[in-house]
Structures are given as structure tokens and as C-alpha cells.
Amino acid sequence: MDFEPYIRDIKDFPKPGVTFKDITPLLKNATALQKAANALVGFIGNTKIDKVVGVDSRGFIFAPMLAEKLGAGFVTVRKSGKLPYTTISESYDLEYGKGVLEIHADAIEEGDKVLVHDDVLATGGTAEAVCKLVEKLGGEVVQCNFLIELSFLKGGDKLNGYPVKALLRY
To answer: Where is the signal peptide (predicted)?
Structure first.
């Protein structure tokens, strides 16, 4: 399926000069939503996945769907101060600012095979921070999945060593 017609460009959001890739048209179409989830699962092949990590906040849309289809657990990585239990954190740079991500200290077990999922790979800072969090807890990042990769921002360079898959590349 061609997913590009379901992605809407929003110019100057969240700040002037940025063109935001809006996935809500894809999400509201039942067929596109289901086929996108199936395509993302297809990227995994026969690899055993123990946990799917979804990144705050749009990564939370597909990550639980992927976890259910893969028979895996779902783990959230959130912005600082949003998780209620003991956490570990990682600072990162993103395309329009800085931030801190956190994960529950007991979310990943030693040796867990982990799929990291987010909606967009831009500069790679967020995904890199998530991979570091997973590894701090003893997990192995098997793959990083995205709906969209903005290749011109070269975010994949920060994920050197991790397989990166995306449904769409711009």
C-alpha cells in the first residue's frame, strides 16, 4: 500500500521553517492504519521480540499494536517527570530543542530483545537516547522502526549499528 497520501505536511509547525509530517490522516483511515501496523510488523521477520518500546508520545500509537502482534510486552519511554516509578534518564538533542527521556528502571530485563518504535526519525537524537536507555538496562536493541524517516536530516547516522526501518522516507 502507498502510505504517502495519508501523510499531511503542516508548514511552520511547531516553529517557523519546520514542516511537520502529520500522521493523523493515516490513523483515522482503518485500512491504512491496519496495513501500516502489519507492514511495521513485517519488518521484524522471524526475529523474537520480548519488548516493544514506544517513544512519547506518537510512538505510543503503534508500539502497543506491534507488541500485541509480536506477542511481546509494551514499554513506554516518556519525557522527564511523567513516569510514576523509579526511572533512569538520558539527555538528548532534537531538531528544535533539547530534552530528557526516562524509562522505568524495571521495564527491560537483562537479555531482552527490544524493538524501538517511534513515528518519525528526524535528527536521531530521540531514538539514540532510547537505545541508550534500553542498553543501560541490559536489553538488546534488535531494530528501530519508524513510520517516517526524514533522510535529509541524517538521523540514521546516530543509529549506526542498529537496523533502521521506515514505511516512508523523505
So the answer is: none
